[in-house]
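Hi C.,

You asked whether I'd gotten around to modeling the 391-residue construct. I have! Everything is below, sequence then structure, no commentary in between.
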Amino acid sequence: MNKIVLLNCYLGRLPWYFDFFLKSCETNPTIDFIIFSNDEKKRDIPQNVKLVKFSIEAFNLLASQKLNLDIKIANAYKICDFKPAFGIIFQDEISNYDFWGVCDIDLVFGRIREFMTDDLLDNYDVISVKDSFPSGYFLLFRNSTTVNHLYEKSKDYAYIFTSNENYCFDECGGAYDDVVLGKNILETSTKTESIHHVLIKEQNNIRVHFDLFIIEGTPGKIKWENGILSYKDEYEVLLYHFSCYKNNIFSTIKKWKNIPKSYYIDKYNIRKNSNWGISAKWTDCVKPNLRNYLFKMDMLCSKFFKAKVIPDLETGQYSYMNRHIFIGKNIKKQNYLYYEDIDYQYDLIKMSLHKNYFFNKSTKQYYKNEKNSFSEVFLDGNIIKYTKSIN
C-alpha cells in the first residue's frame, strides 16, 4: 500500500469545522495528517494526526532556507500559494512517504482509500480531485525529486513567493470562470503562471490525473456515517468542501462537544437526526426567504428615509480572483462603486436595520462591509468576498 501524508498549515484560531475535519481524519487510519498550527487549545487528536506548533515567522524562516529565496509573507492566507512547494519546504516531514498532499481543514472526508487506490497511485504522479483545475484543497503529489520541484517550472514562482499578494498559484491563477467552462488554462489571461499551467505543459514528462470525487456548494442531502460520505444516499464521494457553507449568511454553525458517528449536512444546517422535519425546513427554506424579505424591506426603508451614503470605505481596487470592483469618492466625500467602466458609478446606501450592510442604489445588490474587504451577498446566501488589492 502506498503511504500517504496530507499537509496543512493553518495559522490563527482553529475554526468550528475543524472538529468535523478531525473526526473524518480518524476514520481514515491509513492516511497520516500533519497540521502546522499556532492554536494552543487542548483537544483530543486522532493517532494519525500530528499537530506541529508553528508561526508565520517560522514559515518565513523555513521557506527561505528550503527555497533559497527571501520569504517575508505578512498574512497566513498567502501560504496557499506555496502549497505546490510543500514537498521541498516540509521535505523532512514527508521523507518516509510515497505520496504527499495538501489539504484544507474545511473538509469532511469520506473513505479516501476508496478513491485514492493503489492502482490510481501507481499510474499517476499528480492527482486532482476536481476535473477543471488543480484542487488546492486536496491535491496529491508523488514524493519524487521531479514532482517535488515542479513548481520551479513556472517562470513566475520566485516572484509569486516573494510577493505578499495572493496569486492562486496552487490552483489556476484565478482563471476559475474560464477553466470551469472548459477553456484550456494555456489560453486564459492570468497575471502569473500557476501550477495548472505547469501541469498541462509538463504532461509529456509527468502523469497527471484530473477527476471529480467531491461535493461543493450547498446542495444539502449529504450524509456522513462512520466514515462513509454520500450524496442523496446514492453516490459515495471522497470529500465535502465546506467553503460555501461556512461563508453562507444563512448557514448554522455547529459546535458539538463530540462529533457523532452519523450526521446530515443540509443546505444551511448540520443535524444528527435523519428526519428532514420542521427544523430542517426552517433552516433550508423558511429562514432564508424570511431574511431576504427583511433585506428588501430594509432597502425600501433606507431609500424612503434617505439613509446616508456610505462615507467610510477605503478607495481603490478590491479583487476576488480575476474579478475587480473599484471604490471611489465624490466631491462630497461619499463612496461610490464601479466595475470596469468608471462612467457607470453607483451610489452606495447604508442599510438601516442590518449593521455593516449597504446596497447599490441602482442594481439593489447588497454587500457586507468587513475590515479591508466587503462581500457581495446573493439571494441564496452565498457571498463573493472582495479584498483590498495591495499596491
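If it helps when you're writing up: The chain has twelve helices and 23 strands.

Thanks,
B.
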